Amino acid sequence: MDVNSSREENKKAKIALKKEIGLWRGVSIIVGIIVGSGIFVSPVGVLRYSKSVGLSFVMWTIPAIFSLLGALVYAELGVRIPKSGGEYSYILEAFGGPPAFVCLYVTFVVIGGVSCAANALIFAQFMLEPIYPNCEKPSSAVQLIALLCLCKLITFLIQLLICAINAFRVKWATRVAVFFTICKMLALLLIIGFGIYYLATGHVQSFQEPFEGSATSPGLLALAFYQGFWAFFGWNYLNFLVEEIENPARNLPLAIAISLGLVTGLNIMTNVAYLAVLSPYEMLASGDTSVAIAVVRSFD
């Protein structure tokens, strides 16, 4: 009996997720999750509530620091509790099953559902941009397209395909993540390139007297912070894959630090590009979902 039980224990000990995520794949996963609709939507909100160019950049820096501090805490938790599952695993370890279940439910059903709805609305706005290029989009049309995005069969099939790729082979899933990360970064680098061109040709009017008219209301500053923080959402998701990371004690903190530094640089440079190509008034007039399109159209 002792021999059989020891064999069973050895078999159980050998059952584990494959460690196929290295440092740079980890970086690409975090960057791919963070870089999304936020950087195309948040800049207008941050500028609107901060009321000046200079303060808007301060309000971009504060969420970046806040995210970095939170990410480093998660990195420490990931090293001390090397289990996949993110905050679910940490709350389960500390407080037990019921609080961990509530956390998981809120994360995926409430926060995840709201995030999907917001992204669907933003997608609908961009879809209607060619039809309504310089005017307000009908709210009924936006809501209908967003609803179709959430309920359509093709969306379900795409999600099913992604789940199948993740279940079949981690390397394939990370390759897909790397591909989409590269696509997102190329889009941002294109906008940054436009901004560099405009700065090189002397378009610096937006940066003169940068703090003039800055907001002082705590409520407005809180709204500006919230708008900027949305563009950094997602830095905690690598912790859901801790058991699949090679040498997590080294690679998890490094991946988090590198990716947040990269995303912060991209976000700030993209905002510089927006304000180099457009004046603050033009940027605010472009609407929450049209600032990137307005930058591209400036070259027509």
UniProtKB/TrEMBL annotation:
GO terms for cellular component: membrane. Signal peptide: none annotated. Its main location: membrane. It comes from the Eukaryota. It is found in: Membrane. The chain crosses the membrane at residues 21-45, 57-79, 100-124, 144-165, 177-200, 220-242, 254-277. Gene3D superfamilies: Amino acid/polyamine transporter I. This is Amino acid permease/ SLC12A domain-containing protein.
